[in-house]
Amino acid sequence: MLSVRLQREADNLLFHFEEPLKDYVRAVQSIKATMVNRANAFRQHFDLDQERKYKELNLEKLKFMNPEKFSETEVEFRELKTNSETATKRFEHIVAVMNEELTRFQEQKTADIGLAFHEFAKGQAKLAKDIADAWRGVLPKLEACSK
Fold this sequence. Notes:
The protein is mainly alpha-helical.
């Protein structure tokens, strides 16, 4: 009976310690996914910016060498420039949101994990005390049986 009660207390203690850690792991996985999105956005921003610079140089050359093709290429260049600017804004937005969220995450999770460790330590101390009390109650009975 006593061991069942102590086992329940130990299980409860473990559950309350384990859940904040699982929550922390889920949050870290979410951050990793966001970082992948940021990397992809940066890659798109960088690639489009490089392509825009290359086409801008070609556009300048066409202005003098082939004026007929210049107007056609200029339309393509404007579209590419718009796409490049959109990709840059998307990347900058992701970075800004990430910076805000990381700060909030660090503050909140530090507090959560600290509380979880504190509660776990208190629970461990209480469990050790309860076990010691249980043995104190059992020892006189064992001694009586051995006489």
